Amino acid sequence: MNSLSRRRFLKISGASIAAASALTSMNSVVKGAQKVSEKTGKSVKGIQKIPTYCSMCFWKCSAIGYVRDGKLWKVEGNPIDPLSAGRLCPRGTGGVGAHYDPDRLKYPLLRKGKRGEEKWVQVTWDEAFEFIAKKMKNIKSQYGAESMGFFSHGIGGGFIKHLLKAYGTRNIAAPSFDQCLGPRDTAFEITYGDVIGGPERTDIENAKCIVLLGSHLGENMHNTQVQEFSKAVENHASIIVVDPRLSTAATKAKFYLPIKPGTDLALLLTWMNVLISENLYDKDYIEKYAFGFEQLKAEVSQYTPEWAYPVTGIKPELIRETAREMARYKPSTLVHPGRHSVWYGDDTQRGRALAIMSALLGNWGRKGGLINQDVFDVPSYPYPEYPKPKRENADNPNRKYPFGGAEGYTTGLREATLTGKPYPIKGWFVYGTNLLYSLPNMQETIDAMQKLDLLVVIDVVPSEIAGYADVVLPESIYLERYDELFAPYFKQPFVSLRQPVIAPPHDQKPGWWIAKKLGEKLGLQKYFPWKDVEEYLDTRLKMAGLSLKEMKEKGVALGEKPPLYFEEGWEPEFDTPTGKIELYSTHLDELGYDPIPKFTKHEEPQPGYFRLLFGRAPMHSFSRTQTNRLLTNVMDENEVWINADVAKRFELKSGDYIKLKNQDGIVSNRIKVKATERIRTDCVYIVHGFGHNSRMLKGAYHKGASDSRLITKYKVDPLMGGTGMNINFVTFETEA
User: Angle at which helices 347-360 and 264-277 pack, to 10 degrees?
Assistant: First the structure.
């Protein structure tokens, strides 16, 4: 990731600060942003407006929290935020429900029964820290610091990650890599020498043709992209959707291709065949920037539309017509790279095909395609150097997966815990991720946890993983705490501040405080030299030419926009072995992998079984929001989409409750049937995150079915270790 867009940083200038302030007078927006009178110490009456940024999903839109008469009232978008443009999604506006959630963790808990029994004793924070510190010291002395592992999701885990690095371990992993976007970013880095990133570098609003393969815009509710997609539809962009299910996005499509699950790579290779054989690709672009065109041409010649028809179920004339439609609007044809990309185990190669399609259409660095992004440079805090681990990371020993991710491998760390190889993993910290619902094969995770000497869970709700913990630490929600600064790569660089809008209702504490206090118990004071988080944040902001005071008032500071396109002066630089876009990957060839993607067939369901597909709903985030009463008022359980003809054959109708049984005999909770013509006959679909079995989640207990419990099989991507999970099949068990 050494290309220009990932090496050039921005320092905000005085002029750009003034320009940002001139855009919107944030003083009027956030005037009086205090909750307590400095003179009386009493709650302020009336309405206070306090900027922060959202954490209801990973998009992290800047927001303004409203406190009315000392109580949290509502949350809206910050109008100067480049991500949200002042508009939040349903989850963002529903963030108030997270504060008032009656199922929240309230106090530190110590386990008093067996793992998974959910038997607890309430303790003080100091007692919890003493217990954890003693265990961590024992693990370090007996096994080494590297025998502690950390699983984290989201920016909130930053301070805990700092603590674990200071302790001496680098066994840190996030499901966002090997259970989500890892194959996609690996594929684009192999091809272009750069990643797609997040927020994605997609110029959706300027695209004249948008191609979506299993990307459910409008259901995954990535705020910026959904707003831009709406603009594109309004501007009459040509939409092509490839999906076994008629998704929300598919209802906006000019062309809808109800593809057979598991054959997307076949369709991509066939589209390449048409673009090349009919001379529809961007010849000048390929000649100037790409390497390996002749090899690609020879490889894809076998993938004709007639070959693809029985494989994908898409008629030859429709394949040709959609390929020509893409070519008609090039280079402003955006083949969306997607995000959740762990499907079948060959996902990096499918991502490579997406990347190659983008190159053939000439859209990398072009308006309406995949554009340049930059970052607002906020220097790191000047910490002392971390101790160097004495052993390699346990999650990917000997570079088993050659394209390893900086975020680590969750399943690799789980495997090391199970096997004790390459060395024992005896302690886990888990922050903000319900591993039982985010990792495939729930039983493997349970078996791994039984081998631990210490399991600490830090969360805001008592998810299933908390039921297996030795210690559960209740964190304050995002509206109640300071957190790390947010400065992502984006087309408009910016930095945003998270600050408390309201006090936590019980004995919940912020992550920074937990890390600092536990660090002191472990004798790591030198890694926490700041008095409090405000001093920490102000130090970093001043190094960037800002201050905490002004950020508390505005919430967001904008940097200077970089050139977005080649035409605007973005000089292309491809950090690949050839220095060009590698249609034919020399790196893959050297390692003995296919340098150009090839289609291989995937396992089919046996008679009476259907491929299990899963996705998201716009009002819920993963398995984390099902106790939020504002959001469950909109959707409190999921449904299983079954083709209407299949439902009739099984004598099922919409509203019936059934159970799903997978190929390994695992049976789900009861789930409501949605009989519909909007899905193919060979698969079923459910929204992820429901079917909770934790008795502490009273508002979500046994509401709907969990796809995670049914995902007992997974196939590992040999290039980067991602876990393909769309290889499970289910049948129906009807209720008496």
Answer: 20
- Please, which residues bridge with residue 43 across strands? 36
Domain formed by 610-734, architecture? Beta Barrel (2.40)
Q: Which helix (H) or strand (E) holds 15?
A: helix 14-23
The residue extents of the domains of the chain are 201-373+569-591, 610-734
User: Could you report the per-residue pLDDT of 182-227, keeping only the tens digit for each?
Assistant: 999 999 999 999 999 989 999 999 999 999 998 989 898 899 999 9
Helix axes 511-521 and 533-543, enclosed angle (nearest 10): 110
Q: What is the residue-wise DSSP string for 561-620? A: PPP-SGGGT------STTSSEESS-HHHHHHTS-SS------PPPPTT-EEEEEE--TT-
The answer to whether 701 touches 102, Cβ cutoff 8 Å, is no
CB atoms within 10 A of CB 506: 10
pTM (global) more than 0.70: yes
Terminal Cα-to-Cα distance of the chain (whole angstroms): 57
Six-digit token pair at 297? 């041409």
Other C-beta atoms lying within 10 Å of the C-beta of residue 68: 12
Instruction: Classify the phi-psi angles of 66: left when phi > 0, otherwise alpha if psi is within -120 to 50, otherwise beta.
Output: beta
Report how far residue 513's alpha carbon sits from residue 529's, in angstroms, rounded to the nearest whole number.
Answer: 13
Residue 58 and residue 56: Cα distance in Å, rounded?
A: 7
User: pLDDT for 490-539, tens place per residue?
Assistant: 999 999 999 999 999 999 999 999 999 999 999 999 999 999 999 999 99
Instruction: Decide if 229 contacts 621 (C-beta within 8 A).
Output: no
Pick the CATH number of 201-373+569-591 from 3.40.50.1010, 3.80.10.10, 3.40.50.620, 3.40.228.10: 3.40.228.10
Residue 152, strand partner residues: 431
